[in-house]
From TrEMBL:
Superkingdom as given in the UniProt entry: Bacteria
Name this polypeptide is given: histidine kinase
EC number: 2.7.13.3
Native source species: Oceanobacillus jeddahense
Principal EC category: transferase
Length: 457
């Protein structure tokens, strides 16, 4: 994989260099060819050679002799040049802006000498031809210098093609060396990124530190963060799966007992020899066991709906003091809890919450039931309404420190639990409170009891 990436990067770089070299060559040739297609209006911005060769645009014939147009005179002025028109014998027929010491006759040798070299007044000469006549354009103090080169066009093209070929080859070699080094450095972390993603796909979530990550430092950092997050989710999933399996095992065990009772008492009911009182007693047992099984399934359905956020809240604004007080009165009127001690106090009579009363009652009662069921009968439960929430405290056995982190987990039942239960009570209470945008806090110490505090923001 690493070498495949390196070769691909290398081919990309070489292709770019090759294309750039070809494009540069084409641009160079286009610039050279464009020099021969100048607009006469723009020749004053070109070289003296091109200016002279294109000056015939400003000439016309009158009475058999060339005449300079007004545009030509203006062009000469803007270019800073002067002009002499010669006949076939080298005699000056006319001039424009020529200096007083300019020659009036030129031999062929004079023209060659003038064309090749500056004169003593630093005039650069350019020679053109129009309708059988010659003209000389002189440019005083010209910044341009003429260099005469003799060359064979065929040989020039050969040398030029060889030169361009050598340039391309050298560029490709340099690009290969630089590209190879660059690609090796670049593809190493890219290859490692691909490996890390493959490891995540294979559920290998261990974070790893990359040496010399370069520009991919943040990528590796994010991958490690993803690994840690996925590992945490995996641990949570395994933990939840383990507890779910334990819960299924416990519930299966718990269901077997009431089912056995229901079946046994149902068989007894079919006996014609039992009395009416026995028949009523057996029916009550069957009903009680059936209700327990229904509560078990209801708890399961409720926790699944809360976990999947499918529970619709019927919110109503209520005064917390009256709501909790009525709940405790109803609880103490229940024959099952008539002998239990529950103290109620309120320090926030005006406190109001916007809640689903049915669900919140279920959550608060779960905490109170938990305190009474999992402790001795003489346990004292205290319920307080404060400005920042509801506190439910008992002076019972308390919860071991190592179990406190799991107390709100679904399907978890503590080691100090001796009564029958589904392990969903506190998890349901926590989910109900969170569904209302609140939170629940817990403090517990062995031998001193447990405290739950409910806050609704």
């Amino acid at each position: 994989m690493k070498w495949k990436l390196t070769i691909r990067y290398l081919i990309s770089i070489l292709s770019i260099v090759f294309i750039v070299s070809i494009v540069n060559t084409v641009i160079l040739l286009a610039l050279i060819l464009s020099q021969h297609n100048e607009d006469p209006e723009d020749i004053i911005h070109d070289t003296g050679e091109n200016f002279t060769r294109s000056f015939f645009y400003y000439l016309s014939m009158e009475d058999g002799e060339p005449v300079v147009s007004e545009e030509g005179k203006d062009a000469l002025t803007r270019f800073g040049a002067w002009l002499q028109i010669l006949d076939e014998n080298g005699n000056v027929l006319s001039d424009e802006f020529a200096p007083d010491n300019a020659a009036t006759h030129y031999t062929p040798i004079d023209l060659v000498h003038k064309y090749k070299y500056m004169d003593d007044d630093f005039n650069t000469y350019f020679i053109g031809e129009y309708e059988g006549f010659s003209y000389i354009i002189g440019v005083p103090d010209s910044q341009q210098q003429r260099t005469i080169i003799m060359a064979d066009p065929q040989q020039f093209l050969t040398y030029a093609s060889q030169f361009l070929g050598a340039i391309i080859v050298v560029d490709l070699i340099i690009a290969f060396i630089v590209g190879f080094l660059f690609s090796t450095v670049l593809t190493k972390p890219v290859s490692r990124i691909i490996e890390r993603i493959s490891e995540l796909k294979e559920r290998k979530f261990e974070p790893k530190k990359m040496k010399r990550p370069g520009v991919f430092k943040r990528v590796f950092s994010n991958l490690n963060d993803v690994s840690e997050t996925l590992q945490a989710h995996e641990n949570e999933r395994q933990k939840l799966e383990k507890m779910r399996n334990e819960w299924i095992s416990n519930v299966s065990h718990d269901i077997k007992t009431p089912l056995a009772s229901i079946r046994g008492y149902a068989e007894l009911l079919s006996n014609e020899d039992i009395s009416a009182e026995e028949r009523l007693e057996y029916a009550e047992v069957i009903e009680r066991q059936s209700l327990y099984m229904k509560e078990l399934l209801d708890d399961f359905n409720l926790t699944m709906r809360l976990r999947n956020r499918e529970m619709t809240l019927n919110l109503q604004e209520i005064r917390v003091e009256g709501f909790v007080k009525k709940m405790i009165i109803d609880l103490l009127n229940d024959p099952q809890f008539q002998t239990r001690e529950i103290d109620f106090s309120s320090h926030a009579p005006e406190l109001t919450w916007n809640i689903d009363q049915h669900l919140m009652k279920r959550a608060i009662l779960n905490f109170i039931f938990n305190a009474m069921i999992h402790n001795d009968e003489n346990v004292k439960v205290t319920v307080e309404v404060q400005e920042d929430g509801i506190i439910i405290h008992d002076d019972g056995k308390g919860i071991k420190k190592e179990e406190q982190a799991q107390i709100f987990d679904r399907y978890y039942r503590g080691t100090n639990t001796t009564s029958r239960g589904t392990g969903l009570g506190l998890a349901i209470s926590r989910d109900i409170i969170q569904a209302h945008g609140g939170k629940v806090e817990m403090e517990s110490e062995i031998g001193k009891g447990t405290m739950f505090k409910i806050r609704i923001d």
